[in-house]
Amino acid sequence: MDNAELVARDLRAVWHPCTQMKDHEQLPLIPIRRGEGVWLEDFDGNRYLDAISSWWVNLFGHGHPHIRRRIRRQLDRLEHVILAGFTHEPAVTLSEKLVAATPRRLTRCFYAENGSAAVEIALKMSFHYWKNLGIPGKTEFVSLHNSYHGETLGALSVGDVELYKKTYAPLLLRSRQVASPDAYHRDAGESESDYAERQFEHMESTLARHSERICAVIVEPLVQCAGFMRMYDPVYLKLLRDACDRYGVHLIADECAVGFGRTGSMFACQQGPVEPDFLCLAKGLTGGFLPLSAVLTGENVFAAFYDDYETLKGFLHSHSYTGNPLACAAAIATLELFERNDVIARNRALAGVMRETTAHFREHPHVGDVRQRGMILAIELVKNKDRREPYDWRERRGLEVYRYGLRHQALLRPLGNVVYFMPPYVISEDELRQLADVAWEGIQLAAKDR
Ligand code: PMP
Fold first, then answer.
1. 139 CA distance to ligand 1 centroid (A)?
2. Fewer CB within 10 Å, N or C, the chain?
């Protein structure tokens, strides 16, 4: 089997996500045969450094031996069992570990298979909580401009990706988006925290006016990952927690992408520090091995659903593969890697190397911003640096960097014109340097006059 053969078969049968399939008339589809550490290898023997952790799921490299072993051990015992009326050891152990690892308020875990489902669950639980308490009229949610929370209908409703919103508008729930604290838009000379405080006024006034209708505010703490890796100061989280308490509104922290050490702390909300009412976890939860997500919440929420059967207050949500034992085993193994190694400290060192190796990018005439939170570093390409004027999206400049990367051993899939690194934590300093070199050369090529 070689690349061409598998690609031909693929294009006859597979419909790929986040893809205009016609692109593959020119853009090569890369069939991967194996992965080890940060490296992926295709059927022709080409290698690619996975700079984006395969959509941010892979924390400790491909094929990590410890996670593999734990899944194998579980596979010999129990592959799956219904989680209603039955339980199993991996679900119990994982719940205990997640409760111990997350902020104190969070004591209960509810499972699903992906981030979007976790968001749906958090939204429904929040709505249902107010209903069970007999507080009428709370049916809406608030989120930030430029947010992304997944692509099922409820999750899409609280997201703010213009194309998706426009396309699916008639199908979506009512929600409000308020101006975000995205530091990219701060005034020259203004600090990120001053800007976040200033932008919080929009949230404050929305809550002041509409809190009686609002169930919850949902945010991606510190980094709007799918929203071009835009970043904001932790002071915003603190102000938000305080306002949610004052106005009687839940705070949902969607850490599907930023959880598990990505931003420099185990969870991004700990940099507030704030304790959310709901914490959504997915992606890196299993180290990138199997689909699993979890929503953590506190005793007050749990208690609002806990009553005699006839009250019909129980939470209504059930996916067939809820708490799959193999996925839970992978998640336990992932958490064990955090327990055994000082991952956060090592990431801090790696983040420093990422910063150093890209310091010169700021001087590039077509780089409008280089921003970083821990193990996420983003480079924003612009047409005009002084005015930070973006390139026309139709020019697909970021795609040029992607193509260049593929020819030079790097998987650097951009977000529009934002090139970013979000590598597995096992990446070496040399590999980070290699990545920075490829990105620089790719950007040089992409930014050429046309
Ligand atoms: N929330 C956030 C913050 C995300 O980044 C994503 C995925 N990019 C999701 C939710 C949805 O997760 P999934 O793709 O697993 O449904």
1. 23
2. C
User: For the chain, what's the residue count?
Assistant: 450
CA distance 1 to 7: 10
pLDDT tens across 135-191, in order? 999 999 999 999 999 999 999 999 999 999 999 999 999 899 999 999 999 999 999
Q: Domain residues for 409?
A: 3-63+342-446
- The count of structural domains within the chain is 2
- Among 319, 340, 361, where does a domain finish? 340
Please count the CA atoms within 13 angstroms of the CA of 426 that sit on its side-chain side: 18
Q: List all residues whose CB is within 6 A of at least one atom of ligand 1.
A: 114-116, 119, 148-150, 220, 225-226, 254, 256-257, 282
How many beta carbons lie within 10 A of that of residue 35, not counting itself? 17
How many whole angstroms separate alpha carbon 64 and alpha carbon 47? 18
Query: Of the candidates 163, 174, 236, which has an alpha carbon nearest to the alpha carbon of residue 210?
Result: 174
Whether pTM exceeds 0.70: yes
**pLDDT attached to residue 450:** 86
* Residues 331 and 379 reside in one and the same domain: no
d(CA 307, CA 272): 34
For the chain, give the percent of residues with pLDDT over 70.
Answer: 100
What is residue 133's predicted lDDT score, i.e. its pLDDT?
Answer: 98
Last residue of a domain, one of 340, 363, 392: 340
Residue 159 DSSP one-character state? -
Smallest CA separation from ligand 1 atom 1, residue:
149
Q: How confident is the model at residue 208 (pLDDT cuts 50, 70, 90)?
A: very high
Q: Are residues 390 and 335 in the same domain?
A: no
Q: Element (H or E) spanning 178, and its range?
A: strand 175-178
HEC string of 13-68 equals: HCCCCCCCHHHHHCCCCCCEEEEEECEEEECCCCEEEECCHHHHCCCCCECCHHHH
